[in-house]
Q: What sequence folds into this?
């Protein structure tokens, strides 16, 4: 074999080994390249270190912070709304407090009640029940009929009624339709007729035809409540009691003597402020004032003879000339008619309000407690 042939044979034998080595080198190169691509976290960290990466990171962080602030602002909205409602409710609560912030004492309210009662007694010296009656039974019937109507209308209706049924026995035996027709002008005549028939039968059967003289027995009669019972007790039997009707309740609240709206609670609080002997007449005077001057919608503040004692002065018309047009005549006359006592009291005009001593009495609208604190 020549040298050339031997070399060719050696090369042919080495070729498979070279190809295997080349394949192995190629596989190793691929693995190395994959290993270099795998650690993306390192590349990301590196990218963050670059200026462009830092800018992007700052923008992302800014967006996240803004989103958190927006969420934080929206979250307590309910709490804010609840707090606002509580604050509003607290403002609306009418607390009986003096300018110093302390609750007004009973003594202070009692002094104001006494001054008001004294002033009303001077103005309405002729105050009396405005229902016409000659005996307790007639007063009881007239008071039941006075619900939701005027005393004037009742007084126009009762003469014919009492002529037809002068006693409880007569009224208990009345024909319901005929009774209804007689009392129709007073309104709600069917329900009122039912009450009159029921109370007349109870008087006949349980009380010997006589009106009882106690609150407990009166309120058991059909159609008779505490207001009606006290009208009868105070004016037919001389038993002191407060008549808490709509006029009375409205005025004692305006005078800051009570904040109660329930008639029984009003009665209890005012009872505690005045002597028992004054209860009946204080009711008459207050009701007179409510019907004539201190109206529900348009009080005639500018023509009120007790204005300087009223803590609520200014709720109505304060101009004297305009206020005079709001005054009402006795027994529900027309606005603008001259206010004067009835014909039973001729020649005696209502006297002016007695002068006050500024050194001993607080200004209008200020409690005695507050005035005492100011002096100290």
A:
């Amino acid at each position: 074999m020549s040298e050339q042939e031997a070399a060719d044979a050696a090369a042919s034998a080495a070729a498979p080994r070279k190809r295997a080595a080349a394949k192995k080198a190629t596989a190793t190169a691929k693995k190395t390249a994959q290993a270099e691509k795998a650690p993306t976290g390192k590349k990301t960290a590196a990218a963050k270190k670059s200026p462009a990466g830092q800018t992007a990171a700052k923008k992302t962080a800014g967006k996240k912070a803004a989103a958190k602030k927006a969420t934080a602002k929206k979250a307590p909205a309910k709490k804010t709304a609840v707090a606002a409602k509580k604050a509003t409710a607290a403002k609306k609560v009418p607390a009986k407090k003096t300018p110093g912030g302390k609750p007004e004492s009973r003594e202070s309210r009692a002094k104001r009640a006494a001054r008001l009662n004294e002033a009303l007694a001077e103005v309405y010296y002729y105050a009396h029940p405005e229902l016409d009656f000659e005996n307790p039974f007639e007063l009881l019937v007239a008071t039941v009929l006075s619900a939701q109507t005027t005393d004037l209308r009742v007084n126009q209706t009762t003469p014919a009624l009492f002529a037809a049924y002068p006693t409880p026995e007569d009224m208990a035996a009345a024909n319901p339709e005929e009774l209804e027709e007689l009392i129709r002008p007073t309104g709600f005549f069917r329900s009122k007729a039912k009450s009159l028939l029921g109370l007349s039968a109870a008087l006949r059967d349980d009380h010997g035809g006589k009106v009882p003289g106690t609150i407990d027995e009166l309120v058991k009669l059909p159609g008779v409540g505490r207001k009606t019972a006290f009208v009868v007790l105070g004016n037919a039997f001389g038993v002191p009691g407060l008549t808490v009707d709509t006029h009375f309740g409205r005025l004692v609240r305006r005078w800051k003597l009570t904040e109660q709206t329930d008639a029984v609670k009003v009665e209890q609080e005012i009872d505690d402020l005045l002597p028992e002997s004054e209860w009946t007449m204080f009711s008459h005077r207050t009701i007179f004032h409510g019907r004539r001057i201190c109206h529900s919608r348009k009080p005639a503040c500018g023509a009120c003879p007790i204005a300087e004692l009223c803590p609520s002065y200014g709720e109505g018309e304060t101009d004297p000339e305009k206020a005079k047009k709001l005054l009402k005549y006795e027994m529900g006359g027309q606005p603008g008619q001259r206010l004067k006592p009835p014909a039973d009291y001729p020649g005696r005009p209502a006297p002016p309000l007695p002068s006050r001593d500024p050194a001993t009495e607080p200004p209008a609208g200020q409690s005695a407690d507050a005035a005492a604190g100011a002096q100290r």
About this structure: The mean pLDDT is 77. Residues 3-37 form the longest helix (35 residues).
